[in-house]
Amino acid sequence: MNRPLATARLTTPTYVAVLMLLVLALTFGLGAFRLGFWVDDAPGPGVLPLAVSIALLVLLVLVVREPLPADERAFALAPAAAILATIVYAIVVPYTGFVIATLALLIVWIRGFYRQSLLRAVVASVGLTASGLVIFPLLLKVPMQLGPAW
Amino acid sequence: MFEALEKLGYGISLSLEPSNLLYAAIGSVLGTLVGVLPGLGPVTTIAVLLPLTYHAGSPLGAIIMLASIYYGAMYGGSTTSILLKVPGEAASVITCIDGYQMAKKGRAGPALAIAAIGSFIAGTVAVCALALVGPLFAKFAVTFGPPEYFALALFGLSLSATLSGGSPVRGITMVLVGLLLGLVGIDTITGVERYTFNIMAITDGIDLVPMLMGLFGVAEILHNLEDKSRGSLLSTKIGRLFPSRQDWSESAGPIARGSVIGFFVGLIPGGGAILASLMSYTLEKKLSKTPEQFGHGAIAGVAGPESANNSAATASFIPLLTLGLPGNAVTAVLFAGLLIQNVQPGPLMLVKNPDVFWGVIASMYVGNIMLLVLNLPLVGLWVQLLRVPSWLLSATILLIAIFGTYSLRSNFADVTTLMLFGGIGYLLRKASLDAGPLIMAFILANILDTALRQSMLMGDGSLMIVLQRPLSLIILLVATLILVAQLWSYFGRVRVRPLPSET
Amino acid sequence: MDMKSQIVGALGILAAAMLPQAAAADYPDKPITLIVPWAAGGSTDQTARVLAKAAEASLGQTIVVINQPGASTSIGMAALAKAAPDGYTIGTLSSTSYLAALQGRQLPFDPINAFSYISYYGDNLIGIAVKADARWNTIDDLIAEGKAKPGAIKYGTAGVGTTQHLTSEALQFATKAKFVHVPQQGSAASVPALLGGHVDFIMETSVWAPFIESKEVRLLAVTTPQRSKMYPDVPSLSEKGLKSLRSVQAIIAPAGLPEDVRMKLETAFRKAMSDKAFQDTMDRLGMVPLDLPGAEVKKLVEGEYASAREILQEIGKAK
């Protein structure tokens, strides 16, 4: 029943997720030692993180030993590219302001991932961004940085 | 008891005054509209409208309008949870689980209708209970000290793992991940920053709303990219709009039980609505004859939590009005609204401003009716949203998630959080690791850790205090029972399995 | 104070010096943004909103209040420190902001010198409250028991490192009484902790006020420099010769604000203090209005900063 962590399977979503959570557990578990376990005659801020990290390590072993879910599918390319696009958006938006970055992201999204015509992508992106700007900065008075920062 | 009903009648007569009815109507419409926008929609709206209430004719009118926005926003939040898997607040996470599955199966109509009707019934129950016994329970909230919160958090955690549709091991894993993420930020007891890596945006902890919208909304549209052949979200045709006879019989019990659970849990300040939904969901799953349907579109999984959620929101007005204790960001703004009208929520509110007290309670009821009248006809319209081509719908969700997140506190870092959790959510989803238990544990982590250490400070370094106080002891025993039962059913099953082949 | 923030501060002043000063003549010609580094609905939010509303009249422009809460005000304060010193972005200052800096928080700005000081508007009223049926009738009773039975009495405040907490630490240091601090999650949470008997007393902002009126809670002392006019029978800690920190509420702007612009704002905000709605709000919150010109605000804040540092050194928590 047990499936070994063969290199060929390293890209199986479960194993990728387990790897990510392993990093999380180790970061928090090791970090707990710097936080301290006993402060001012009371348990310190490190106690719970350490306990939970250890429990998580045990559970991750159990997850790997479990048979993979029947509906587990390999990663697809489009979502990975989309994740990249959204992260790039988050990085550049403080510099470009909302208008340029949002228009670009939506055009890439509609044209690149959904293969709609360029005209449709541009028209829809302009329409959506404009309505977003009417609702949030105008009606809800949320202060938003629209243009590029100097 | 009679007296209370009489006062409630007085309150209803106040709230039925034409001007107050108008305020309720405006508030409900505004609330429903902004509730559909995720993020801090209701808080932003109420904050923007606060100065207006300064000029409103009467304190009651102003508060009625603010309370209607609150309720309207809650309705709106359920709508997006069911249709788009975009929960506007933590309590809606549970509605997402089965509601969204129903929508995908073309049953968005019944899901939305049962959410609206369940909420209305729960609201009715809660308002009556509030009028009859509410003031009696005003003191109940303060009996909840750190030991009780600690026990309650453990109880909540023991329920959280059951939210997972997949294997229990994966459910518990996500609970632990949620606990770790929930511990990020300044530690209440020592003031030390935990795992913030000097990033200012997470000094107070990872913000819930961007994380929610990332793990659910953004992760879902990323996942949908895998299957672009479908023109829209639906996998089948849209079925009937209103619940069938069978839907009704499956929902009646959950609505009734949800209303009662919600009322009592809502009396506890902080985390009320979330715990109430969680408890209702777990209970219905346990009581159901078909528990395997939970997570795949069980109507009881929408009816129960939605009712509990609404009932708890109503009951949370008790600590707000009698102790001045706001349970969440929205009630905090409502609190400020009362103060602006020179009404001091607190122990003397019943004595000094009985008209506002009973007026507010009655107006919640009037607001609930108004929302039902407003929302039932809208069900048909909302369902049409699912026909919008997926390229346009997903782009819209992306835009609303970004702008809604930013509107929280005008901080770009929150947009980064949104996108990071979008990617993480997609990965977890691919690995059949459910985000539901993670969110519950995330919320409970801080309560658990703070209450545990506060209890030890109160008990001079010993945890015995948790066992010495009757209320915390009882909650702890129930939590232990549930945990043991879960472990039993899991490990018991594993060990027992080989037996049949031997006999 | 590290080198980097000093350089940043100096650069700010330099940048301001290079700005054309003539622009001030027609200031303000567009709406002004007021950053409140607290969530909507809190006491600073409420008072700042009414004050801003009143100041609009003499400035002739709207003041848009935005809430940028988080990290004990550091998020909002960082945004303010970074804004252009042109008078179109101003903010509120609370003691919490500079106290955070004293306790080892890494801030991307200098807690004192990154700002120009426009005006003061009041102090939060902080008091020591016990349940009505408590066995202590005066602050002296409480201190005496704290000395006789060290660690037996538990108390709550809004959190570690707040004005409330540091003042209670100073009290314990000066009187040799020993109380156990059970930090709460914010001021609002302290009241139920007291009413439910989970702590024996609270050192808190005026969240206790309605419960004094309902006779569920008694006030033993206040920490304001003088007695409060709302509670004339309650002694202040300074009468007892005890140190206390002020809970500051002021209007500030990024450092390097042109003096004529600053003066226009100071005049408008100090004039706004006579507004009826503002005074009502302050009364309701039990806050003490105090009218000070900008130059004196800076001196006051520097003095408070020094006393807080002293307290932290005494209790061995300075960083």
TrEMBL record, chain B:
Q: Does the keyword Mitochondrion apply?
A: no
Presence of the UniProt keyword Nucleotidyltransferase in the record: no
**Domain DUF112 positions:** 21-439
Highest taxon of source: Bacteria
Provide the transmembrane region boundaries.
21-40, 52-73, 111-137, 149-165, 172-192, 260-281, 317-340, 356-382, 388-405, 412-429, 435-452, 473-491
Keyword list, A-Z: Membrane, Transmembrane, Transmembrane helix
| Protein name in the entry | Tripartite tricarboxylate transporter permease
